[in-house]
Amino acid sequence: MLRIALRNLGDHKLRSLLLGLAIVAGVGFVTAAYVFTDSLSAAFRQAFAAGSDTVDVRITPAESENGGMEAFPRIPADVIEEVAATDGVEAAVPYLEGFVTIVREEEDPNPFGPPDFGMSWTGTGPFEIIEGREPRGEGEAMLDASTAETEGLAVGDELRVAGPGRAQEFTIVGTFGFQGGGGFGGASFVALTYDQAAQLLEVENQLTAIDVTLSEGADLETVLADLDSRLPDDVDAVDAREAAAEQAAELEEGLSFFNTFLLVFGAIALVVGAFVVYNAFRVVVAQRGRELALLRILGTTRGQLTRSVLAEAVIVGAVASAVGVGVGVLLAIGIRSLLASFGGDLPDAGLVVSTRTVVVGIVVGMITTLGSALVPALRTARIAPMEALRDQPELRPVKPWWAWIGGVILAGSVALVVTGVRRAGDQAAISGETGPLILIGIGCVVAFVGLFLVARALSRPVIGLLGSFARSTAAQLGRENARRTPRRTAVTASSLMIGLGLVATVAVLSRSVEDTILTAIEDAFPADAVITAAGFDPAGGVSPEVADLARTVPEVEAVGRLNAVQARVEGVGDMLAVGVEPDTVDVAIGTFDDVEGSWDRLGPETVAVQRIEADARGYSLGDTLDVTIGGETYPVEIVAIFDFAGGVSDAQSYYLAYDWVASFQDSPRDFTVTVTLDPEANLDEAMEALQDALAEFPSIQVTSVSQLADQVRSGLNAVVGMVAGLLLMSVVVAVVGIVLTLYLAVHERTRETGMLRAVGMTRRQVRRMIRFESVMIAVFGTLLGLALGLFCGWALAIGVVGEGVSLSVPWLWVAAGLLGAVIAGVAAAVIPARRAARLDVLQAIAYE
Q: What gap in Å lies between CA 580 and CA 123, rounded to an integer?
């Protein structure tokens, strides 16, 4: 039976190749995810491990019990005196790090680009000097070698860098990089002396960490125990090697999103591939019914027949999985090269292809192939010896109970989605409630399953309607060919439905959220410009001096500002509480449909709560909440409950008084500054005047509301484009499925095609018949995907934003999907149509 399986694969090389391609894509994504992240993790582990060789103990802030909004938690600077006084400590070196902004020549830097970091040079850690020397005094800096090369800078050049405040001038005295080579993934690093770093970052008497070197002969465990007894509770002393491993683990955790991202698309491609494999083996078993029945007459057992089909699946799965692993390795190399071409060079420790990666890739591919081929293989056990007398494979009718089951599942999924939509009216994800969104997501997944089952019953009437315009005999025959095997057509179309359905879902979701946000900005946000910290740390805020300078601009009519503090509300949990000035609240956060109470009463130990939160928690005006800030609990009275204009919720629900929040900040920062301009002023000139007034603060971003809208639009479009591009792989696999189905159908209808040629059909008409059948299948699958995608996109948009969502259908995407379906159908028919047209008429008629 193994020889029979090998013979069948060898005799149908194109079929075997197409089957393998259906598995290769998914395995490639899975392998690439692991190879890329494993290689990068190994590089970071190697770099941090090398850096820990020069340090024995690292002093860091203890992990906060209630979280924190700080990107770089600090410890008091006076801790270093306790550390240095500990027996066995030879040296204690302070370390400080934070976000900065390198002033570059380009006029319009990318606000979503990689971050810039400022740090104090310790001579320890994972870095090494590549050229020049370390900074030793005021006005000296080192720059990472990757950024220096990208920006065309060298030792001796001038560099402008800004922390939260004004920009400062530095001379580059050296360059540095990871030990072992490689860059920082596009991020830039500036190294200074500790005093210069503290001045630039506007940090007083605080450290990010302390690197400790022990005296010769000192016992590490003894020193660690002594340090634990001397240090405050919010400061930890750990073995430097453990700290390095923990840093590497944190980076690995940060990279997990990339791993998950690729694995999701790998899973989608594998699901689509499973449809292709299942359909192909089901058709092959049906076509080989006579051959298998003859084997039964010759004494072959049912189990042997089943094993022969599974043997084919094992061989195809094994070869395709092995090729997929190789493709995944190449894809991982390509991803790294692509990142490097965009300035995202990363640490390099060589390519890591672990045994786990190879095993997972092969096992996933094998399970997908075998699982898909199992049902067709089991069908061989029901083949009776008398089927050897049949000339053609039996076309089994579609059992109606499949449609009933699919209908029930589809109805249940719609009920889940509708339930989630109703709940999302009051509990949208944007306000922090993700339960309804999860319910909608589950309903959409179930809907895909239900529609797949219902598609068997829909294929005949829908394709009949789609092909009703056919006038030529060839086109009519193509339409009927697609209709007469509804199960085969439904499975083939469903593989296309998955990819295009997901693309449509993402497109509708993003466009609806985009339009809703932009409408809310236009209707409920009176400010003309927004000032925030540029880069990756908006929570780092901007200097209060920024708002004061903005008020001096003649074209500025009003300025509002927000600050923030990490807080815990009893019964709710940790959150970012925002501070606002009562007299500029409409400028700072927007306009309101309704306010119960008064913003004017907002002061120390008072709070204003968004109504959607108040209703969910059962709050009323005058209630007292226990709010913990900085380790101390305050009884806070609710003095206002409000609704944002436009019916759109905000994730932020608790607002405190600006001055009260500022009293908790060691270094006062404004989270956001909003500006309204004189209506009579020219917008472009006013924005230019505002930017000129704040030119000495390059670490801030001054954005007009229209520019903010453009950023939202471009950001969402980029996400949709990237997701659609990756989903295209599943669409390609689906098109491979159409090719394979038509190829098998041509083989199945060899005699029929010969008869048509014998009665006068030309080769051109045969090709047209196959093309029309292919287009009908592709358009049917596209319509299923678009219908489901539009429905799920609408529901998910409500789950994200709430009942105030502006449903927007990207009709250009819909039109592109339909046009793409026609093109895909024509392309998929090329090989089968050529094969059908080239059949020898006499051999085809004599075919058995």
A: 43
**The amino acid at 221:** E
Label the pairing between strands 235-239 and 57-61. antiparallel
Query: Distance between CA 607 and CA 575 in Å, rounded?
Result: 14
Q: E-strand spans in 367-411?
A: none
Q: How many CB atoms lie within 10 A of CB 139?
A: 13
Please answer whether residues 340 and 146 qualify as being in contact, where contact means their C-beta atoms are separated by less than 8 angstroms: no
Q: Which whole-number Å values give the CA distances from 235 to 37, 59, 248, in the listed order?
A: 31, 7, 20
Query: DSSP alpha helices (H): ranges in 467-599?
Result: 473-484, 486-524, 544-551, 585-588
Classified as helix, coil or strand, 246 is: helix
β-pairing, 573-580 vs 654-657, is: parallel
Indicate the DSSP class of residue 431. Answer: G
Tell which residue, 301, 443, 285, 455, has the closest CA to residue 373: 285
**∠ at Cα 357 (356, 360), nearest 5°?**
80
293: Cβ contacts below 8 Å, ≥ 6 apart: 383, 384, 385, 386, 387, 388, 390
Query: Which residue's entry shows tokens 């250009």?
Result: 812
SS (H, E, C) 143-165: EEHHHHHHHCCCCCCEEEEECCC
The closest of 782, 771, 784 to 836, measured between CA atoms, is: 771
Number of other CB atoms surrounding residue 131 within 10 Å: 15
Write the burial class of residue 788 (CB in 10 Å: 0-12 exposed, 13-18 middle, 19+ buried). buried
**What are the structure tokens assigned to 448, written together?**
């895909």
Structure tokens at 816: 């592109």
Q: Let me know the angle formed at the C-alpha of 551 by 545 and 553, rounded to the nearest 5 degrees.
A: 115
The most confident of the ranges 182-196, 228-242, 319-333, 794-808 is 319-333
The answer for residues whose C-beta is within 8 angstroms of residue 93's C-beta and 6 or more apart is 122, 123, 124, 210, 211, 212, 213
Q: pLDDT tier at 527 (50, 70, 90 boundaries)?
A: confident
Nearest residue to 213 (alpha-carbon basis) of 187, 186, 191, 240? 240
Q: Are 608 and 581 in contact (CB under 8 A)?
A: no
Q: pLDDT by residue (tens digit) across 655-687?
A: 999 999 988 887 788 888 888 888 888 888 888
Q: 3-class SS at 236?
A: strand
- Contact between 486 and 807 under an 8 Å Cβ cutoff? The reply is no
Angle (CA) 391-393-398 rounded to 5° is 145
Burial 493-508, CB ≥16 within 10 A → b, else e? bbbbbbbbbbbbbbbb
| Mean pLDDT over the full length of the chain | 79
Q: Does residue 828 contact residue 537 with C-beta atoms inside 8 Å?
A: no
Q: How many other CB atoms are there within 10 angstroms of residue 579's CB atom?
A: 24
User: Can you give the pLDDT at residue 141?
Assistant: 93
Calculate the CA dihedral of residues 490, 496, 498, 504 and round it to 10 degrees.
Answer: -120
User: 486 and 456 in contact (C-beta within 8 Å)?
Assistant: yes
- Please, what is the Cα angle at 437 between 435 and 438, to 5 degrees? 65
- Statement: the pTM of the whole predicted model exceeds 0.85: no
Strands (E), 683-752: 700-704
**Distance (Å) of CA 473 to CA 303, 477, 842:** 45, 6, 22
Question: 681 near 497, Cβ under 8 Å?
Answer: no
DSSP per position, 404-424 = HHHHHHHHHHHHHHHHHHHHH
Compute the C-alpha angle 141/143/145, nearest 5°.
150
Convert the pLDDT of each residue in 343-392 to its tens digit: 555 666 567 888 888 898 899 888 888 888 887 777 766 666 655 455 55
Phi then psi for residue 696, to 5 deg, are: -80, 5
Given this model, what pLDDT does residue 383 score? 63
As given in the structure block, the two tokens for residue 781 are 């699958």
C-alpha 232/C-alpha 728 separation (Å) is 55
Instruction: Give one DSSP letter per residue of 44-69, joined into a string.
Output: HHHHHHHHGGG-SEEEEEPPPTT--S
